[in-house]
Write a structure and sequence with these properties.
By secondary structure, the protein is α/β, with parallel strands linked by helices. It is 35% helix and 24% strand.
């Protein structure tokens, strides 16, 4: 299928051919009929892409600070490569779509329903059911394609709380401004529209607004009060796109005492205190198209907000906008400037800077035929390698596989080839397949696991899928490299153990991505410790960093929590250094602010080993970013070792050792993959014995279970 994407490194827009997505729980598969080009948002992305690195840095100053923090811990070159990779990843464009349901996993929608969604510019979409709405019979696909962007306007209006008879100032008469104008008038309000463009002003006038065309150099304040019988307006909705700070100042001057200013567009935000202090004006920034947006429980989980507590969700805003269209209280037809077939859709972006174009629609046809095609997508330009010993399949192409795992594989000297990617959604898979030269992409799980050409599978899916996929790989005689964790509960862990016990005499290898034990400085520590037979004391301080409660890693049913998801690395590393079985463990959970942190963000883990060694893992999320992320102190026989961020290792009174250093941070990803490949090629056992993998996984799960 065809999808429109943009490269953030150079602003280039292109049409890619990728497999259609596979449906999942709480989602719909939709065949597009029309989608709306969001002139403001998409123009901003394109201009960002076309800017140079310095300009990008200036416009994204907050992210520059994050880059500097990463340089402190990882070094310049790894940080540069990470930024470069991020910018080179094509992103999907578009978020206002109308089409027909092909598949549904919820009762509210059925096959054949006409729906709108926040889907991108693509022939076939997979969209959350809570971000869809049924199109009324009287509303065409062309009109309906405005719904999501129209709901951005509607949400801004709801925040303004207009009353019948009030007068509102709408600044900026682009697409958002003209829709806002129409909805306010339909609500019984008077509207004064402000813009520099004569055509847009006249269009707003045709909808019933009074207009101020700023190109005539009118005095802003005087113009406003002259249209409003000498009074200041009740509220202002800003839909403009400008860096100027004057918009906020003019809005405050023209808005009455205790009036409301709502920002829907993007303007300079250098506020003057006196503008707001003297009048007690309320100022609010509107976020997207309503409550539920950016809430994964609402979007991905399909859980609606109770109407008695949240009257207007994103979906209910969609439905309201569609009703306004159906009742002909608003009219989108005059806003359509041009329509392009999807094959010619790039022409829409050639004229995106032309502000005469208000709304551009993209038209789609024959999508059902695409959806019914075989799900395998073959890259014919990929050359098959001779004498390949390791044929690689990838499950779950995400950020980690793109930026860390696949580059680590590329560095290996062993005879391998990239065979297939299994993914439920095509764009990420396509990006990685093209970059790393995979032969094909598939959404068919059965054909992937039964593919005889694949003998080695890398699993980088969300954590709740790991155990099932590991078992599937074992049953189909694949070598498995699974990113941690192995499982997120004891039931899953036992299922994996059963699969391993039942494999018989198979030589297949199960490897987990406990990369830190393979880091060069970890190997150095291991050699130094082997010279000392006395018990050791380990203190690992992990400045893990803050992750929002809503992040999927914090979800115990999906990510398993941060102990299972990340702290397991350090349980494994301590087990590796001790070289002895874990005899007992205990944990203290931190007291936190429940609205911000979870208790699994801040834990003190204590472990005792059979050889008399002991250790503490201080896994904390409430530290500063400038402090080292990972620090390890080891005490034994009146000597100490200290490892900082896997960049430098110091010995204090350690016999025959003082200092070792890496030029760049090295957490062992390359070496971990190398050991896996070496074991496969040479017929060696797994680099990490399954007994240790099981032991570490069980401890991480038990610690988390003790919290529950």
């Amino acid at each position: 299928m065809k999808q429109i994407v943009q490269n953030l490194s150079n602003g280039e827009t292109s049409i890619v051919d990728i497999p259609p997505p596979k449906n999942i729980k709480n989602h719909l598969i939709v065949s597009s009929k029309y989608s709306l080009v969001s002139t403001g948002t998409e123009r901003m992305l394109i201009n960002f892409g076309r800017s140079n690195l310095l300009q990008k840095a200036i416009s994204e100053s907050d992210r520059v600070l994050q880059v500097f923090d990463k340089i402190k811990t990882d070094g310049i070159l790894p940080t540069y490569e990470a930024v470069k990779s991020k910018l080179n990843d094509p992103i999907a464009l578009g978020y206002s779509n109308a089409g027909v349901v092909l598949e549904s996993s919820v009762q509210k929608f059925k096959e054949g329903d006409r729906v709108i969604s926040n889907g991108p510019h693509a022939e076939i979409l997979r969209v959350p059911s809570n971000l869809c709405a049924l199109i009324p019979e009287k509303v065409t696909f062309e009109e309906a394609s405005f719904t999501v962007i129209g709901s951005v306007s509607l949400q801004g209006i709801r925040l303004a709380k207009p009353n019948i008879g009030e007068t509102f100032l709408v600044i900026g008469l682009g697409l958002l401004g003209l829709i806002t104008t129409q909805i306010l008038i339909a609500n019984g309000c008077d509207v004064i529209g402000v813009d520099h463009d004569e055509k847009r002003c006249q269009l707003a006038k045709s909808f019933g607004a009074k207009i101020i065309c700023l190109k005539n150099n009118e005095d802003f304040y005087q113009s406003v009060i002259s249209f409003n019988k000498g009074k200041e307006v009740d509220g202002t909705i800003i839909c403009a796109d400008t860096k100027s700070n004057s918009v906020i100042h003019n809005s405050a001057q023209s808005t009455r005492q205790r009036g409301r200013i709502i920002l829907v567009g993007q303007v300079g935000l250098n506020l003057k205190r006196d503008d707001f202090y003297k009048k007690e004006i309320s100022f609010q920034v509107s976020s997207s198209y309503g409550p539920g947006r950016y809430d994964k429980v609402y979007e991905e989980g399909g859980v609606d907000y109770p109407i008695g507590f949240v009257r207007w969700t994103a979906q209910r805003n969609f439905e309201t906008f569609l009703n306004l269209l159906s009742e002909e209280k608003i009219n989108m037809k005059p806003l359509v400037s041009q329509i392009f077939d999807v094959d010619n859709s790039l022409k829409a972006y050639e004229t995106i800077e032309d502000k005469k174009n208000l709304a551009t629609l993209i038209k789609y046809s024959k999508n059902e035929e695409i959806h019914n095609k075989k799900t395998d997508f073959i890259y014919e330009d990929v050359q098959t390698k001779d004498e390949v010993e390791i044929e690689i399949g990838l499950v779950g192409p995400g950020n980690f596989s793109m930026r860390t795992l696949l580059p680590a594989i590329k560095k290996q000297k062993y005879k391998y080839s990239f065979a297939s990617i299994l993914s439920s959604q095509g764009l990420n898979a396509h990006n990685q397949a093209k970059k790393f030269k995979f032969k094909d992409i598939t959404t068919d799980e059965k054909s992937f696991w039964e593919n005889k050409n694949i003998n080695t599978v890398f699993i980088t899916t969300p954590h709740n899928f790991h155990s099932d996929q590991v078992c599937e790989g074992i049953k189909n005689n694949k070598n498995i490299f699974v990113e941690k964790p192995l499982a997120i509960n004891l039931k899953q862990l036992e299922e994996v153990k059963t699969c391993m016990d039942e494999r018989g005499k198979s030589s297949q290898i199960l490897m987990i991505g406990f990369n830190r034990r393979f880091a060069p400085l970890s190997k150095k520590i291991k050699k130094l410790l082997e010279q000392n037979k006395d018990p050791k004391t380990f203190i690992m301080t992990i400045n893990a960093g803050f992750i929002e409660k809503e992040n999927w890693q914090q979800d115990l049913e999906v990510g398993g929590g941060r102990i299972i998801g990340e702290a397991c690395h350090f349980i494994d590393l301590m087990r590796f250094f001790a070289g002895s079985e874990i005899e007992s463990h205990s944990v203290n959970f931190g007291q936190t602010k429940p609205d911000k942190f979870t208790q699994l963000d801040q834990v003190l883990i204590n472990m005792n080993f059979k050889d008399g060694s002991m250790g503490a893992i201080n896994y904390l999320s409430n530290g500063g970013k400038s402090f080292p992320k990972e620090r390890i102190d080891i005490f034994s026989s009146q000597s100490c070792l200290q490892l900082n961020n896997f960049r430098n290792l110091k010995g204090y009174n350690w016999p025959n050792f003082k200092f070792a250093r890496n030029l760049f941070q090295n957490k062992g990803h390359d070496q971990c993959v190398e050991s896996f490949f070496r074991a496969i090629t040479n017929g060696e056992p797994s680099p990490i014995p399954f007994e240790e993998i099981f032991e570490v996984s069980k401890v991480a799960i038990e610690i988390t279970e003790s919290f529950k």
